[in-house]
Amino acid sequence: MLTSRVNLLKSRSYTEIDKLEKSGNSPLSNTSVKQSAKQAVWTLAEQFEGKLKGVSFELLSRGRKLADKLGVKLISVLIGDGVADADLEQLIKQGADRVLTVQDPKLAGFLCELYAEVLCGLIKEYEPAVLLAAATSSGRTLMPYTAIKVHTGLTADCTELDIEEGTGHLLQTRPAIGGNIMATIKTPDCRPQLATVRPKSSLPLPADPKRTGEITHIPFNTAVKGKGVELKGYRRSLDGSVNIEEADVIVAGGKGLKKGENFAMIRELAGSLGGAVGATRDAVDRAWISYPHQVGLSGKTVSPKVYIAAAISGAIQHLAGIKTSETIVSINNDPEAMLHKLADLSIVGDVFQVLPELQKRINKRNNH
Ligand SMILES: Cc1cc2nc3c(=O)[nH]c(=O)nc-3n(C[C@H](O)[C@H](O)[C@H](O)COP(=O)(O)OP(=O)(O)OC[C@H]3O[C@@H](n4cnc5c(N)ncnc54)[C@H](O)[C@@H]3O)c2cc1C
Q1: pLDDT 10s digits, 123-137
Q2: Are residues 67 and 210 in the same domain?
Q3: Which of 182, 200, 237, 367 is the most exposed place for a label (fewest CB within 10 A)?
Q4: Gap from CA of 314 to ligand 1 centroid (Å)
Q5: Mean pLDDT of 356-366
Q6: What is the pLDDT of residue 235?
Q7: Do 204 and 54 contact (CB within 8 A), yes or no?
Q8: Is residue 347 part of a domain?
Q9: Which atom of ligand 1 is the closest one to the Cα of 296?
Q10: What integer pLDDT is reported at residue 67 of this predicted model?
């Protein structure tokens, strides 16, 4: 299976690595780099504006455990632009044995087709055993696309990963059927084994200043066009949203808020707590707030320290996105609301009385 897959990939028109190899300039011509990367565990680092994102380090703690069990190297792969070697070294200090990076101004912003072409080229060349990415917007877009291109499987949104005794297969565990069961999935026939991991579902390893490893820069072949897709630029969200996946505090509102204007209460409270604003799908569907705020099965998975749910019933699809929150506070006037059952702190009351009171007390505390 592996042989036929590799042959199939070889027939593809990916040119970057091939051209460099032929010219003798490729870092991949270095067989020691190639050997150590072969059958290794890879984690896909993420960057924004030249800074590594926290998920890059979370993935390394997952990958380290798998690589140690398999007795192979752990390699952090970064596609992007402007990330300094000093920052890449941090990936080594926090678990990676080696960093492979392709950087170019054209790769500064995430473009699925372009990133996939680069990533598929690396996979073709190095043949990793496992590739883990974060279940962020870009990870969730890039990985299915890549899986199709390299003819392998993908398990999305894993909460647990392990290695099967005897076979060495990756065991990929994730919630299934709306979070009612945990399913463990393996990919025995195809390589690499691809999985995405929920952000904030693991802690980064502490930095070990004694750890050393190599950083290999692979030149970006400008002939790689990403199927004619071009990034013209990006704008920050106009409603001031932050990345709720990274937030430590989230105040979220649901349909019980009655109208979009009432999200002002949620925004004010979130602002006072230095947090982000979340929402249910019902609130988003009513255009009270934009989709990037949606939490749940078809929205984002969040793991804040505190999740305050205001007038949210606690449908299974919403719960699927908040289960890993450290502390859940539910404000709902229905004592039977499902979210009250899961919450660490339940406030049974009218959201239009509870939220202003809470705000008043927090303002008082903040002013002291
Ligand atoms: C395939 C699929 C995917 C989905 N994905 C998602 C998803 O990603 N995220 C998501 O959230 N949903 C998702 N849903 C929808 C989900 O099933 C629910 O419909 C939704 O979560 C309900 O949102 P809600 O809690 O805002 O509304 P409701 O269920 O209507 O709950 C409103 C709550 O507000 C309370 N309330 C009303 N007035 C007040 C008041 N004055 N004070 C206090 N409390 C009050 C009520 O008691 C009630 O509990 C999905 C559904 C499907 C089928």
Answers
A1: 999 999 999 999 888
A2: yes
A3: 367
A4: 6
A5: 94
A6: 73
A7: yes
A8: yes
A9: 8
A10: 97
